[in-house]
């Protein structure tokens, strides 16, 4: 259980499976298995929650982050690979 808690922590910190395997000293295939289990659980929960939204819903996205990073020279990327963090929101009416 302690090992699984460590894997969950790395999953939540968005550390890839290869790096997690190296840091924890566990086989990469084992980490991939657990990461897939976590993804399936998240998907099932989100699918169940989504079915509760019946009727009109409003969806919007926004991007947060610095316009310029100190010490970063050159043009900032646009689109994919940008430094800004996307945030999505869903609001159920009624």
- End-to-end separation in angstroms reads 42 Å
The helix tally amounts to 3
Instruction: Give the ordered list of helices and strands.
Output: HHHEE
Q: What is the chains' assembly state?
A: single chain
What about the largest sheet? 2 strands, antiparallel
Strand content: 15-25%
Q: How are the strands ordered across the major sheet?
A: 1-2
Q: What count of structural domains?
A: 1
Which structural class matches the secondary elements?
Answer: alpha+beta
Q: Can you count the beta strands?
A: 2
Descriptive account of the structure:
This protein has helices at residues 2-12, 17-24, 28-51, and strands at 57-64, 85-92. With 94 residues, the protein is α+β, with helices and mostly antiparallel strands. The protein has one domain. The protein has a two-stranded antiparallel ribbon with strand order 1-2. Helix 1 (2-12) crosses helix 3 (28-51) and helix 2 packs across helix 3 (28-51). The protein starts with a helix and ends with a strand. 5% of the residues are buried.
């Amino acid at each position: 259980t302690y090992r699984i808690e460590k894997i969950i922590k790395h999953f939540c910190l968005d550390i890839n499976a290869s790096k997690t395997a190296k840091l924890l000293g566990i086989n990469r295939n084992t980490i991939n298995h657990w990461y897939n289990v976590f993804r399936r659980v998240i998907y099932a929960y989100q699918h169940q929650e989504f079915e509760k939204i019946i009727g009109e819903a409003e969806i919007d996205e926004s991007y947060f982050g610095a316009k310029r990073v100190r010490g970063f020279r050159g043009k900032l990327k646009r689109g994919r690979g940008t430094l800004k963090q996307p945030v999505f929101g869903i609001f159920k009416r009624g």
